[in-house]
Design goal:
Strand order of the largest sheet of chain B: 1-2
Strand content of chain B: under 5%
Largest interface: A-B, 48 and 52 residues
Helix content of chain B: over 70%
Oligomer: heterodimer
Number of helices of chain A: 3
Largest sheet of chain B: 2 strands, antiparallel
Structural class of chain B: mainly alpha
Chain lengths: ~120, ~525
């Protein structure tokens, strides 16, 4: 099962990188969203995939009775999902605001902070 | 089926109560987070916010001094969360390197807090400058003090989201443009960090740094650790603005309020360098050895690109942005050289750069206020307007170029000597050449903006009064740079033992696993 998940993760990464390389901010944002999911699946696969029972210790016992699913990757992914979702929300608002203020969603035309025809620094004193 | 032998809980749990000294380990982060949360509630009382933030930053400096003192006396200290012993629970582990970085970061943040009184207006305060400042400092301190790789990722994100907030404070067109580039590229960098951490977990089954350090040797034969370290170097290199990945920094650092630029230049790239030192030197020393040539080339290129970029700029703050990049190159060179000289030099350079770059950004803010301009093509006559301020700036220019008797001199000496010791004469030459070019860049800045006679001779007698809140932090940081240059022995000794502790982390491991720990 890990092999199939690795392939899925590869597809996600490919799509994400393709989208991140485009000029339009909305497409970059979609790339960011897919990239986040690609990483989450990667952590999930990295924790080994099994069809075992949840790691619940029976009443009166001190340790797990048999093999159980790994709960840690789920905790890690939960953290990563919350963080990447908040970042996505922030960047979405930022992109909208940039579109309003700069009147473009093309990153090539966003040259306010670094103007194209800057004068050279003075050569003499 | 029910093989329920009574488990020995003392292996997995701390059963003794936590001592006061252990609380010191998490106190910097807990303190900043709670003050930040409290300040959010004081949204309407802008004046009160500033006072509370300043007082709590001063307290933070004291906490970090106490922490450094504790670590210097007793060796690395560990506190585990929720009584779960590592590798099950999350641990905060502080060694000398982490404590030193945290202390200097707190000092720079305190200076920025004082400077903000003169720089942040009421609307900036209402939009949450002070809460964001406290959360940024919490994230930076957390990154320096944590002993868990995933936790490090979380602190990176905490400081990143606060830095986004600080960067757009004011919402001018330039700032939005800068934030778009900063935001997307830094998000990609932290996602790369998370990718590497996912692979790390897949290979090691643990994310505790001490646990990784002791397991790396046996796993090295079978696991693709080189790929893993390559990914980490890529991710942290992007955070630290190393050469091919540095372009987001000069594109964004000149857009926000001056105090925000100063804070970013002082703290954020150094967190990347700290993480790089932690991962390559302590966790994977063998891989660092193999990567050292690549790191050295990247370092040399970063220095050169940074300083040549600085020579080509006219905007005061963009010159400084490129100088930040150039300094990162020197630290990378130190990591590449390795050994006590190289790593110690990198740590010293990072601490020096935190103070001096913050100070230089303060100077740029005051210069813009005095001269009402940002371009050195038109900015002039600052020396005549305020001689004391010009003197402070000149000292910082010397410090950043690595001239004695300022703080930039000693790390440069250590790095050049370490490079010559291992026979990397070209790296030593690059370090010296970059120092020379930096002197030209800052010298030209001083010549044009400060010494050149003003084109429009306004009333010479009306020297504008500079507020103490602006000049004070600048003077304090400059004096600190001078003090470290004149009397570096105590810091040098501390840094030497910090570098030794990274190279031979048995004290660190003992602190996390006192009884050898579960295998």
């Amino acid at each position: 099962m890990e092999a199939w998940f690795s392939l899925l993760v590869t597809v996600f990464f490919t799509v994400a990188i393709y989208l991140l390389l485009s000029k339009s901010i909305i497409r970059i944002l979609l790339g960011v969203a897919i990239l986040g999911n690609a990483v989450n699946l990667l952590i999930f696969t990295g924790g080994r995939l099994t069809r075992d029972v949840p790691p619940v210790i029976a009443q009166g016992a001190d340790v797990l009775a048999g093999p159980a699913a790994n709960a840690l990757p789920q905790a890690l992914i939960l953290t990563a999902i919350v963080i990447s979702f908040s970042f996505f929300a922030f960047l979405l608002v930022l992109a909208w605001r940039a579109y309003e203020d700069l009147a473009t969603d093309n990153t090539d035309e966003m040259r306010v902070a670094e103007p194209v025809n800057e004068p050279a620094p003075p050569l003499g004193y | 089926m029910a093989t329920s032998a009574p488990a020995d809980l003392s292996v997995a749990l701390v059963l003794a109560p936590t001592s006061a000294a252990e609380w010191l380990v998490v106190l910097p982060v807990a303190w900043c987070l709670s003050v930040g949360a409290f300040l959010v509630m004081l949204r309407r009382w802008a004046g009160l916010q500033a006072a509370i933030a300043l007082a709590s930053l001063a307290v933070l400096v004291l906490i970090d001094v106490a922490l450094l003192d504790h670590v210097a006396r007793n060796g690395p200290a560990t506190m585990v969360m929720g009584r779960w012993l590592p590798p099950f629970g999350i641990a905060f582990t502080v060694d000398l390197t982490g404590a030193l970085f945290a202390l200097v970061a707190a000092v720079a943040a305190l200076a920025a807090g004082v400077f903000s009184l003169a720089d942040i207006n009421d609307s900036g305060r209402r939009y949450g400058f002070y809460p964001l400042l406290m959360l940024l400092v919490a994230g930076v301190s957390g990154a320096f003090l944590t002993g868990d790789v995933f936790n490090l990722y979380v602190w990176f994100e905490v400081l990143l989201i606060s830095s986004f907030g600080l960067l757009v404070l004011g919402s001018e067109r330039e700032q939005i443009d800068g934030t778009v580039k900063y935001g997307f590229l830094n998000l990609v960098a932290t996602t790369l960090f998370l990718v590497a951490t996912g692979f790390l977990y897949a290979v090691f089954g643990t994310l505790n740094m001490a646990d990784i350090a002791r397991k790396a040797d046996e796993l090295r034969v079978s696991a693709p650790l080189m790929t893993l370290v390559g990914l980490y170097v890529l991710a942290f290199g992007m955070k630290a603005a190393a050469f091919p990945l540095n372009f987001w920094l000069p594109a964004s650092y000149h857009t926000p309020r001056v105090v925000v630029s100063a804070l970013f230049a002082g703290l954020l790239t150094k967190v990347g360098i700290y993480a790089l030192i932690r991962v390559t030197v302590m966790l994977f020393p063998v891989e660092r050895e193999e990567l050292s040539f690549v790191l050295a080339v990247v370092g040399a290129l970063t220095m050169m690109v940074g300083v040549l970029g600085a020579l080509a700029q006219t905007d005061f703050r963009r010159i400084l942005g490129y100088l930040v990049v150039s300094g990162i190159g020197s630290m990378l060179a130190g990591i590449a050289i390795g050994g006590p000289g190289g790593i110690g030099g990198a740590i010293f350079y990072a601490l020096h750069s935190m103070l001096v770059m913050t100070g230089l950004y303060f100077a740029s803010g005051i210069a813009m206020r005095l001269g009402a301009d940002v371009s050195i093509a038109t900015l002039s006559g600052l020396y005549r307007k305020h001689a004391g301020f010009a003197a402070l700036t000149l000292m910082l220019c010397f410090a950043v170029s690595g001239l004695p008797p300022f703080s930039g001199f000693w790390p440069k000496v250590m790095l050049v000597k370490a490079a010559l010791d291992i026979g990397a004469w070209w790296l030593a030459a690059a370090l010296l050449l970059v120092g020379f070019f930096t002197m030209i860049a800052t010298g030209r800045l001083f010549l044009l903006a400060y010494w050149r006679e003003s084109a429009s001779p306004d009333a010479a007698g009306s020297a504008p009064r500079l507020p103490t809140t602006a000049l004070g932090p600048l003077a304090a940081l400059t004096l600190l740079a001078l003090a470290l240059g004149l009397y570096p022995e105590p810091l040098l000794a501390t840094i030497q033992s910090a570098a030794a502790g990274l190279a031979e982390p048995s004290a660190y491991l003992n602190s996390v696993f006192p009884a050898g720990g579960p295998q």
